[in-house]
Amino acid sequence: MDPDRASAQLVDLGVAEVETAYHYLVPDGRRGPGTLQRVTTTVLDWTIDGAPLRQHLTDEGDEGRGFERVTMLGDAPDQALEQIDRLLGRDWPDGDDGRTALLVCAECGSLDCGAVTALVVFSRDTVEWRDIRFEYPRCHGHPPESEIPPVTFAFDRHRYTALLLGLRALDAG
Questions:
Q1: What is the layout of strands, in order, in the sheet containing 13-25?
Q2: How far apart are the C-alpha atoms of 84 and 168, rounded to whole Å?
Q3: How many domains does the chain fold into?
Q4: Which residues form the domain of 65?
Q5: CB 116 within 8 A of CB 101
Q6: How far apart, in whole angstroms, are the C-alpha atoms of residue 103 and residue 38?
Q7: Is pLDDT above 90 for 39?
Q8: For residue 92, is pLDDT > 80?
Q9: Which of these, 62, 58, 22, lies nearest to 42 by C-alpha position?
Q10: Angle in degrees, CA 68, 166, 39, rounded to 5
Q11: What are the backbone angles phi and psi of residue 94, rounded to the nearest 5°?
């Protein structure tokens, strides 16, 4: 057993409503001066020990455009249920490389704009989100933007599962 993994400090995963801002294209769908409109909205966000996940990361990969990344726990119940099932290990990961999206584009909810992803690893007593990074789909040709040092969070498996099943029941209902 890897000694670093055995001594990983457990953190609390939660969700909280946070206010976020993002840009979206005006109706003609073309980018150019004056075509972006800023929207402020309240979303559910993952929290780690009470602080939003994005506060534990460096640059979210938005290159100064202001596109926030959010969970899929929002207005689209199907997307929320799919994300929860992936995070519970009940469904295939988002990527061919085994990575699962934690945060996606607030504008469109798609992985195509880039996403914060992690390897979700289950053991008997813990669940880990390993090697959290911002990445675009391979078709865009952008290399992943890894956190330096790599960020990993370990959760008590029972509490993690209870939280996600509770969120799943809310979104399914």
A1: 13-25, 36-48, 51-52
A2: 7
A3: 1
A4: 3-172
A5: yes
A6: 19
A7: no
A8: yes
A9: 22
A10: 20
A11: -65, -40
